[in-house]
Every structure is written in C-alpha cells, then in structure tokens.
Amino acid sequence: MLTLQNMTFKVPETTSDSGNPSLRTIIDDVSFTFEPGRFYAITGPNGSGKSTLAKLIMGINTPTQGDIIFNDRDITDLPIDERSKVGIVYGFQHPARFKGTTFRDLLSIALGTDDEDKLARVMARVGVCSMDFLDKPVDSKLSGGEIKKIELATVIARNPQLAIYDEPDTGIDLWTIGPMVDLLKRENEENKTTTLVVSHNRAFLEAAETLLLIKKGKIAYTGDLSGAMPMLEDLSVCSFSDTCEGEDNAQCYR
C-alpha cells in the first residue's frame, strides 16, 4: 500500500569556510513497506527523525532523494492537498486553533456536508455525545482533550486509507489515553484504516501490530514492543506522559 524506497532527507546545518552550507542527514536511506489495514507505531529517541518520517509521508517535507509509492502510484512530488485526496490524512502534535471558526465548520469541511445526522455519527465515533459541542469555537479556550477530539473527528470524517498521528497524546490527561487508543484501534479494524502513530507512549506501542524504532534516521528495529526492549536503553517509554519525571505511577522504560 505505502512503500518508502531509499528515502533520505537532509537539511542545511552550518555554513563552511567556502560559503557552502553543510547538510545534516535526518532520514538516512529508509526503505519500508506499510501493509494495508495494519496498525503501526513509530518511536525513537528525541531527534531520531520519527516525526520527520511522518511529515515526509504526508508531504509536509519533501525527500532529498528516494521515492514514496502509495497504491502503486508515485506520490513523491505530490502536494499535501493532493495526498489528502488520494486518502492520506495527518493529525498534528499540536492541532491548530482558529479564531472565529467552530467545530461545526471544520467537521462540515472534512465530511463534505453540513447534514447534522452525518455530523452526529462522526461525533459519536470519537465519543462526543452533545450536539452543543458542534458550536464550540476552535480557539485557545478549548482544553487539550477537547481540541484532540475535534482533530480526531475531522481526521476520521475523511474515512482515510492512511491515517498518520504525530504524538497524539500531547497535551491530554491520563484518562484520555485509553479511549484514544481504543478509538484508533477501532477505526483501524472496522474501517481497515492503515494507522501510523508516532509516540513514546507505551499504550500506543503495545497496541501496534508492528513497531518501528528509528535511531539516527534509520529503522533500527521492526517488530513488537517486547522485542524492542533490549534496544530502548536510551529511550523513555512512558505510560501517559512525554516524560515521566515526578510521576509516581508512571510506567517507564529508561
């Protein structure tokens, strides 16, 4: 379904004495095939390139070299809006907030209709029961959990073939993690959505059918979480937070 072929991404780092910028390699010759309908987690140390890999797939960044093949089509140079049209969607680590825009506005755009019955069905899929929530402004007054529910609703409203979530647990509380994992697994299983979650959170890593461990821009391991444990000495894998310092009941691997 989705194949990365020898994908490399480099960025300018410093300027040398000759005046030419040197390049730092973020993603280093990565090749991998994501099978349709599977649940994947991508993890790795900070700065390893895991979020960059997700952004390359979505088209937010363009590879320095290599190819991205989606459903037998080369989408390497396809812009973000065109990738959305072929069935790829992206959930940001920090969802955007729009002054003067309501949840109803965003969900109607994502769904392609303002029919309230259809809006309500999508809301029910993400656990929103009150129709009043539709008229909430998508602004700074929303809690982390509320803005995540809004983004999840707009993502699943597209019924994507491939859904990418970058650190979806950022800014939400302990009690929201479990239902979010259940939601993504349910969408994955019932709608055959290929799901890629970038995370350090143990709940997502355990839920994944395949875990990709990224180190120094390369795929260092593929498999399940238990098999990755010997390679995680320098990575904190937390049960509910980005870092576990100060949390008595956190379950982490250091």
Description:
- The chain is of the alpha/beta class.
- The protein has a domain at 2-96 and 156-231: 3-Layer(aba) Sandwich (Rossmann fold), CATH 3.40.50.
- The protein contains 8 helices and 10 strands.
- Strands 6-7-8-3-9-10 form a 6-stranded mixed beta sheet, sandwiched between helices.
- The longest helix is centred in the last third of the chain and has 17 residues, at 174-190.
Keywords:
disordered C terminus, Rossmann fold, six-stranded mixed beta sheet, 254 residues, alpha/beta, four-stranded antiparallel beta sheet
Short summary:
With 254 residues, this protein is of the alpha/beta class.
Could you state the order of secondary-structure elements as H and E? EEEHEEHEHHHEHEHEEH
N-to-C CA distance? 34 Å
Q: What is the subunit arrangement here?
A: single chain
Strand order of the largest sheet: 6-7-8-3-9-10
Kindly report the CATH topology of the domain at 2-96 and 156-231.
Rossmann fold
CATH homology group of the domain at 2-96 and 156-231: P-loop containing nucleotide triphosphate hydrolases
Q: DSSP helix count?
A: 8
Strand content bin:
25-35%
Shape: globular
CATH architecture of the domain at 2-96 and 156-231: 3-Layer(aba) Sandwich
- Residue-averaged pLDDT, rounded? 85
Give the % helix. Answer: 25-40%
